[in-house]
Design a protein that fits this description.
There is one protein chain. The protein has 8 helices and 24 strands. With 424 residues, it is an alpha+beta fold. It folds into 2 domains: 161 residues, D-Amino Acid Oxidase, subunit A, domain 2 (D-Amino Acid Oxidase, Chain A, domain 2, 2-Layer Sandwich), CATH 3.30.9.10; 180 residues, FAD/NAD(P)-binding domain. The protein is elongated and about 75 Å long. Bound molecules: flavin-adenine dinucleotide (FAD). The site of flavin-adenine dinucleotide has 41 residues, from helix 2, strand 22 and helix 8. Its cofactor is FAD. InterPro entries: FAD-dep_OxRdtase (IPR006076), FAD/NAD-bd_sf (IPR036188). GO terms for molecular function: (S)-2-hydroxyglutarate dehydrogenase activity.
């Protein structure tokens, strides 16, 4: 029944392609440090005296920026760090709109950053949640083949998972599927008991708390619009041009620093461009909509249930995912979004699904990088540039799924990169 439902849903999605409709987008901008007075500035969990020069400024308060900020300040407690976020609150975009899965690392090309950082990231994520007392569930995952033609792809995924050192993987037959998911039918499945679920925004906010407790400063409602060399030392400064990079917002407020790290998610290409680095790869936003299973149908799904990925599509496929609040989501689809941070309600009215699903599900928008030739960039991408400003900047250019799972490992890797590129 579930497979029929998933297939039907997939067919509908394929048939529909691009969609339009209403959209909700919230964008806030405001002034922060420097000459301005607004914006929220906090350090160590409390308001501080205003300061506008830092050793390192991080742009973007999603899970990648926060994990990296945390890692950097824990390694370098004597340096000063500021994290700038354009929204009023942290992690309200991709990091607050996702499937909430702790991926185990099955799908990714062996040796790629995605494979390595996901496998390490999942282990670190479980340890971190344990240590901080954050709720998670290791509820497992089945990737289910329903057609004979999917079997070779399923077996190839199994081999890939083994190459990536994914824990506890096994292949199960139709009986094994029923034992794990009594309402799921398939002919063969890949069983990944190490896969789990967590509220990634809660995790991201905890990284932010760690950062602030270690002395880091978070400034919200500060949209960085310009990254350039400062022409003169900051007002009242006795340190001359120790902080040569100026980050400005629309109001002209300025924050100074020695080095910049951007983790701008859906805006990573624009942040790269304004720092004099390449705009390529560009970001293409893909919206993913979810449907929510009615509470009386929750018994149908125990863990994550995924299809065998269709090689014609770049994402993992529409899946059933239990949420930490007890609800069960079906999704996400992947349609080109007309706005980078547009989360419009999906207009879907298939009668067949009316019994089981409520239609007003949430949505997320994926930041997916596209190269010059129009190909989707598969792996994570981190780069900088040359020139006065660009040589002091490092950009996280492409951090799609499973970047939430990988976030602590990405933080470690970027911190290594920052240490090797810059003289901290
Ligand atoms: C539908 C969907 C499902 C997903 N499911 C999973 C999953 O199950 N498991 C998993 O591991 N991953 C999943 N992912 C991927 C994961 O959510 C993202 O890879 C991760 O959240 C990316 O984090 P980020 O910090 O790079 O980006 P974001 O969370 O988007 O953060 C970027 C931040 O930068 C800020 N910003 C941008 N420009 C500026 C500026 N000029 N000035 C100041 N601030 C700026 C933004 O406001 C934003 O807060 C999913 C993603 C989507 C969209």
């Amino acid at each position: 029944w579930l497979n029929a439902l998933t297939s039907l849903w997939l067919e509908r999605l394929r048939g529909r392609g691009l969609m339009s409709g209403s959209r909700t987008e919230q964008r806030l901008s405001g002034a922060a440090a420097g000459g301005g007075n607004s914006g929220t500035q906090s350090s160590g969990g409390r308001c501080t005296m205003k300061k506008n020069s830092y050793d390192v400024a991080l742009v973007g308060g999603g899970i990648v920026g926060l994990a990296t900020a945390r890692e950097l300040i824990l390694r370098h407690p004597m340096l000063s760090f500021v994290l700038l976020e354009k929204e009023k609150e942290l992690s309200v975009h991709q990091s607050g709109h996702n499937s909430g899965v702790i991926h185990s690392g099955i799908y990714y090309t062996p040796g790629s950053l995605k494979a390595r950082l996901c496998v390490r990231g999942a282990t670190l994520a479980y340890e971190y949640c344990e240590k901080k007392g954050l709720p998670y569930k290791r509820c497992g995952k089945l990737i289910v083949a329903v057609e004979q033609e999917e079997i070779p792809r399923l077996k190839a995924l199994y081999e890939r998972g083994l190459q990536n050192n994914v824990r506890d993987l096994s292949i199960v037959d139709a009986k094994g599927i029923r034992e794990r998911e009594p309402y799921c039918r398939g002919i063969m499945a890949l069983d990944s008991p190490y896969t789990g679920i967590v509220d990634w925004r809660m995790v991201a906010l905890q990284y932010g708390t760690d950062f602030k407790e270690a002395g880091g400063t978070v400034v919200t409602e500060y949209e960085v619009n310009d990254i350039s060399m400062a022409t003169e030392s900051p007002a009242g400064s006795t340190e001359g041009m120790k902080y040569p990079i100026a980050l400005r917002d629309k109001q002209g407020n300025e924050i100074r620093c020695r080095y910049v790290l951007t983790c701008g998610g859906l805006y990573s290409d624009r942040l790269s461009q304004i720092s004099g680095c390449s705009r390529e790869p560009r970001i293409v936003p893909f919206r993913g909509d979810y449907l929510v299973l009615k509470p009386e149908k929750h018994y149908l799904v125990k863990g994550n249930i995924y299809p065998v990925p269709d090689p014609r599509f770049p994402f993992l496929g529409v899946h059933f995912t239990p949420r930490m609040d007890g609800s069960i989501w079906l999704g996400p689809n992947a349609v080109l979004a007309f706005k980078r941070e547009g989360y419009k309600v999906y207009d879907f009215n298939a009668r067949d699904l009316a019994d089981a699903l409520s239609f007003r599900g949430p949505a997320g928008v994926r930041a997916q990088a596209l190269d010059r030739d129009g190909n989707l960039v598969d792996d994570f991408v981190f780069d900088g540039g040359v020139g006065d400003v660009a040589s002091r900047v490092l950009h996280v250019r492409n951090a799609p799924s499973p970047a939430a799972t990988s976030s602590l490992a990405i933080g470690e890797m970027i911190a290594d990169e920052v240490e090797s590129r810059f003289t901290l």
